[in-house]
Amino acid sequence: MAEDGQQPPDSELGPRRGPASQQDMRRQNLALVMHTVAAAHPLSRADVAGRTGLTRTAVSSLVDELIGGGLLLEGELERSGRVGRPGRALVLNDSGPAGLGLEIGVGHLSACVLDLRGEVRVELHRPAPNSSRPAEQTLAELAALATEAEQQAVVLGLRVVGRVLAVPGSVPLDDPGRHVEHAPNLGWHQVDVHSGWPGPGVAPAVENEANLGALAELWQGVGKGTFVHVSAGEGIGGALVLDGRLFRGVQGFAGELGHLTVRPDGRLCSCGARGCLEPYAGLAAVLHASGLAEELDGPASGQDIDAIGELARRAEAGHPTTTRALHHAGTALGTALAAAVNLIDPATLVLGGAYADLAHWLLPAMRAELAELIRVRPWPDDALRASPLARRGPVLGAALVTVRRLHTDPATLWLTEGA
Amino acid sequence: MAEDGQQPPDSELGPRRGPASQQDMRRQNLALVMHTVAAAHPLSRADVAGRTGLTRTAVSSLVDELIGGGLLLEGELERSGRVGRPGRALVLNDSGPAGLGLEIGVGHLSACVLDLRGEVRVELHRPAPNSSRPAEQTLAELAALATEAEQQAVVLGLRVVGRVLAVPGSVPLDDPGRHVEHAPNLGWHQVDVHSGWPGPGVAPAVENEANLGALAELWQGVGKGTFVHVSAGEGIGGALVLDGRLFRGVQGFAGELGHLTVRPDGRLCSCGARGCLEPYAGLAAVLHASGLAEELDGPASGQDIDAIGELARRAEAGHPTTTRALHHAGTALGTALAAAVNLIDPATLVLGGAYADLAHWLLPAMRAELAELIRVRPWPDDALRASPLARRGPVLGAALVTVRRLHTDPATLWLTEGA
Asked: A73 to chain B nearest CA, in Å?
């Protein structure tokens, strides 16, 4: 699993463990050049030297290495009004290394390939009855979808160098990226994705969907620096991004917003406690309170696009039971998020996943509750925002993990391929 | 203000901003040697080379520089049973650079000096009516106390090289260490400690007392890695330490446990909201509920040692109103801390400040409430601990900031003194 966007494994206070070496310096400086070009391309070699403080000789050597690795391209600069002959410009290679994102939902499989600029170049989506069949069948179909996406990428001149899979479940911290510990809505328990991966492609690193949704928001959405991401999928997913890094907590449970107590001694939650957020604001609760759950075939699901769409259509039409259900869910979300603001002091709160599609009806009640409960610090209404990525967040985040790793530590490409 | 124990000012995801240099390498390696000796002294030069991976020649040059700066001493190793002639051993210098900690409470002033080993060498405590006099008078008396502590340190061969002041108030993030924004219990608003510092000594860097209490717990107490520290002083102080660093949030309000909603639509809090933790578990609330507030002269204060001591004596004697008041406060603390566990997933919760003196009666109700509300992750009873430092935490933390900075970045000593 990439280290980008995650806390380092050894971040106890104190200096680095090993001596600093020339090799470390080279690697740091490659990262500095790559990051500089990624942040403001096109740039000339002279621009890069100016922005990094490196000498032009050093920049040239580093740039040549990045071009050789397929990470940067150098071409003619656009003509500008400036005096002097046009230089040659460095840009991110849009037909070089790329990231593959995969997703397993209760009712679908998704895949996407993003290039080094973060642009979506391939996107596939298939309905699939993942909650009612063995994990092996789901993984076999996913592997086929992954192969199809990689083949389409090759046609575009792209080369997938990293694969990450978003799952609606928990991934153990001590064996990151290899297996799913528990995914109740898929009926998965201890599924080893790596050993069970049906060849010939490379198995993806596994990560929780809420975490990847939050990272996507950091990299391409409205989350900046320090924020709390709350999303509705199966259950309520929460994730914390602190100072630009995903914060997992010591056992991987950080951001468990769904089990924050919002109504002491209130409704019984599936976890066994009373008064958690989930029985008040989970999509199952909203569908039930709106009367929609009873009208749909079988149990309504947060991944069920028809149910969410129908909820939004009824709210749009002013259906009073539906708007009331969304208002009450918004108030409960506000109570839980007020606790998150008082504890973490984030810059923003981001409402993602299926909640983003219902934001119009959730946000007013959420904002009213936040204003009521947050008094000791300023809290502007617009610090709570709906995600522009909505339900695409997790699969985009999965692909972006690789893209961002190449931006922040390009040498990882050589190290991985040499291994 | 020292950077030790705080998030770096620029911690957005991405590589370092400037190029890596030989000077950076030297500084990193000095830190590596200092940290290695601090963690396991006495060590020989050969031990240091073995533990760090640096060459013996490099270690000798780095060690000589640290000895020259007064940070390390080299003497005969104790005779051991091992074969071979005794080597010479490196230890932290206990008569070298030292840290001064200062504290302004509502009813007292404190000062202490800690040597490089973290040992308390000077400790002064004076009753002082700080809440009922102008800030200038308090600062004048504090400056005199600081001078007295530094003079006593000189007699012991110590040289104070860093000064930090703990205040029961907020310190702005954009001008760290220079002024107090708001300290309601002192009646302070916008007090510039640096400009207002009465000569001839050096003005201290200012920091919030709850943050320093948490750092003291990290460095000398029972907090390790990632934990939440809750203390009772004036109001309820909370602080988050994440991966060994103090986490302040984007506006410096992180850890505001006192204003977490524990009883929706409950008691009115001084902040204007209803149901906050403070009117249920703040010391004023406990003193009131126990009936003790009415018996004491004037308003009872969390810094009032007699009130806390009397509360403990009555609880010890089985006084039912007192034990009931502490039980209810413990339950409310448990409700708020359960939210912190669900959000942050810490390794431990630390009960500090005056709460530590009452831990015997608070902990059972806290543990019962935590067990009731934390269901989705394991939470052992002993993950909640009373601080061994209790009310001394903030002033010890203030002095330790300097000591830890010298351990983790000893070159700061030359840079500071050369400035």
From this structure: 21
Residue A174 binned pLDDT confidence (cut-offs 50, 70, 90): confident
Question: pLDDT tens digits, residue range A75-129?
Answer: 876 555 555 555 689 999 999 999 999 999 988 999 999 999 999 999 999 999 9
Residue A164: CATH number of its domain: 3.30.420.40
- Alpha-carbon distance of A7 to B244, in angstroms, equals 12
Give the closest-approach CA distance of B235 to chain A in angstroms.
13
One domain, residues A175 and A250: no
Query: Closest partner residue to B273 among A13, A58, A373, by Cβ?
Result: A373
The ipTM (two decimal places) reads: 0.86
Measured between CA atoms, the residue of chain A closest to residue B344 is A254
How many CA atoms lie less than 13 Å away from B221 in the CB half-sphere? Answer: 33
Q: Do the bridges between strand B97-104 and strand B159-167 make them parallel or antiparallel, or are there none, so unpaired?
A: parallel
Burial class (CB in 10 A: 0-12, 13-18, 19+), B184: middle
Of B92, B119, B137, which residue is a domain's last?
B92
| Residue A341 counted as domain residue | yes
pLDDT value at position A79? 54
pLDDT of residue B234 exceeding 90: no
Phi, psi of B321 (to 5 degrees): -65, -40
pTM: 0.88
Query: Is residue B14 assigned to a domain?
Result: no
Measured between alpha carbons, how far is A258 from A386 in angstroms, rounded to an integer? 18
| Residue B405 structure tokens | 């900075």
Identify whether the C-beta of residue B348 lies closer than 8 Å to the C-beta of residue B312: no
Q: How far off is chain A from B313, nearest CA to CA, in Å? A: 32
Q: Kindly state whether residues A155 and A118 are assigned to the same domain.
A: yes
Q: Is the dihedral of CA A295, A296, A302, A304 positive or negative?
A: negative
Query: Of A19, A31, A273, which is closest to B54 when you measure between CB atoms?
Result: A19
Q: Which pair of structure tokens corresponds to residue B235?
A: 């109001």
Whether residue A16 is contained in a domain is answered as no
Q: Do A248 and B53 touch (CB under 8 A)?
A: no
Does the residue B42 lie in any domain?
Answer: yes
Domain residue limits at B108: 97-212+394-418
Is pLDDT above 50 for A245? yes
Q: In this predicted model, which residue has the larger pLDDT, A24 or B95? A: B95
Taking an 8 Å cut-off on Cβ atoms, the answer to whether B256 and A343 are in contact is: yes
What is residue A3's predicted lDDT score, i.e. its pLDDT?
36
Residue at which a domain ends, from A92, A123, A146: A92
Do B347 and B325 lie in a common domain? yes
Residue B92 parent element (H or E) = strand B88-92
Give residue-wise pLDDT tens across range B147-193: 999 999 999 999 999 999 999 998 988 777 899 998 988 999 999 99
Residue B157 and residue B274 share a domain = no
Tally of structural domains, chain B: 3
Burial of B190 (0-12, 13-18, 19+ CB in 10 A): exposed
